[in-house]
Write a structure and sequence with these properties.
By secondary structure, this protein is an alpha+beta fold. The protein has three domains: 1-96; 125-205, Helix Hairpins (Orthogonal Bundle), CATH 1.10.287; 209-363, Histidine kinase-like ATPase, C-terminal domain (Heat Shock Protein 90), CATH 3.30.565.10. The protein is 62% helix and 13% strand. The protein has helices at 2-95, 110-168, 176-203, 215-225, 250-267, 323-333, 358-363, and strands spanning 211-214, 234-239, 245-248, 272-281, 286-293, 337-343, 347-355. The chain has a five-stranded mixed beta sheet, covered by helices on one side. A hairpin with a 3-residue loop joins β6 and β7 (347-355). α5 (250-267) packs antiparallel against α6 (323-333). The longest helix is centred in the first third of the chain and has 94 residues, at 2-95.
Amino acid sequence: MARDLMESRREKEEQELLSAYIETIRSAGQELIGWAENLARRQRLEVQGTLHRYRILFGMFFLSTVSFGAVIVYLLESKIVRPLSIVERATRSVAEGRFEQIEWNSGRDEISSLVRAFNRMVVQLEENREQMVRTEKLTALGTLTSGVAHELNNPLGNISTSCQILLEEVDQGFLPHHKQLLLSIEDQVMKARDIVRALLEFSRQREFELRPVELKEVVDDTLKLMRGDIPARVEVRSEVPPGIVLNLDKARIQQALINLVMNGIQAIEDSGKVVIRAQERPERGSVWVEVEDTGCGIPPEVLPRVFDPFFTTKEVGRGTGLGLSVTYGIVERHGGRIWIESQVGKGTKVVMEFSLPRSQEAGE
């Protein structure tokens, strides 16, 4: 009986102990579940926050990419596509014969360099076209003047001969003023013959021969030839340094220099000077020969026509209008360039550019 009671009590204690364990485990399990739920909630919130941040970052990246792309497109359009379209239109204009430069704000980018190169090309093409037109005019005029000069030369010779015969017989019954009239006729005939000689020289097709010559020697010899034609009121001097050797046709270059120096002398009304200079331009592979005077200068509106045959700003009887045309042809025949810089009232400078010999250019 007592044993049964003890066993019953022990079983009851065990059940109570087991119930306490179960309750403890249940409480621990509930706490664990609550902690897990809190952890899961926090993790979910963190994931949602991360996703939200990534969505914001992605949106910002997308907007930045779109904005950057828009800026790139704008820059390409304004800095490359549009300028290239302008260059393309200008190129078509050149192909159609309209040599128009592109108006462009100066810059240091590649497109600006391209536009500057294009403008330089347009200027060179325009100059080449003008040279071609001028050459064609000179060629046609040379053919014409050759025939005209030969036709005029014979009658002028007959008139001159007749005047000389009459002058020899002037004492045989002529009145005093008759001699003066004959002298005047003779003077005018000589002027006409000078014009005819200039025409013949202009149209003459002599053999063109290039030889290495020292420029200073050519200039000095030219000034010796002109010694009797230089008035005392005008100083003509050479500042050409020794040692400049060019491939030239000496006779033709002397003719060109005589034309330019005489033009300078005739442009000086009172006293003044004509200076011949030369300077090497290694960066261009050429030499500039300058003939500068302190004369009256050439008006800007006249400058484009100064190389036209028979065009002259001198008064009647002081020139044929062929000097600069002949000089232009001589320089062009040498493969050179010629241009004029002038200021009214200050003087004129004519510049001739000749290429250096290849050996000398390489030596530079």
